[in-house]
Write a structure and sequence with these properties.
Number of strands: 2
Strand order of the largest sheet: 1-2
Helix content: 40-55%
Number of domains: 2
Shape: elongated
Distance between the termini: 78 Å
Number of helices: 5
Length: 111
């Protein structure tokens, strides 16, 4: 094997690594802000080499998980000011800063 062929092989391996490695860990990158980030990472690393494992990790990372209520009797509300989701037990809307007590009162009287 001459030097030119060796350089081409090394360059090809490096180029494939630069482009394919981020694609391989894409489910982990997308699911990093979820509570299940470690299981998504493990599925991606251990089963990602199979197409089915990679697709499963990707779907899991993109799946919208329901918000857990922080208090058993708490009611999740939507802000009447901006329409954003206000988590249960929160005092203000995370989008606009509107008071949560007024929104919960409005939703409980409407139901």
């Amino acid at each position: 094997m001459d030097n030119v062929t060796l350089i081409r092989v090394v360059a090809g391996v490096l180029a494939a690594g630069v482009f394919l490695l981020p694609l391989y860990v894409l489910p982990t990158i997308l699911g990093w802000r979820k509570k299940q980030r470690i299981p998504i990472l493990l599925v991606n690393l251990l089963l990602g080499w199979t197409v089915l494992g990679w697709v499963g990790a990707l779907i899991w990372a993109l799946a919208d998980t329901p918000t857990l209520l922080s208090q058993p009797g708490a009611v999740a509300a939507f802000c009447p000011n901006c329409g954003g989701h206000m988590p249960a037990g929160g005092h203000f809307c995370s989008m606009c800063g509107h008071s949560a007590t007024e929104a919960v009162k409005a939703q409980t009287t409407a139901s």
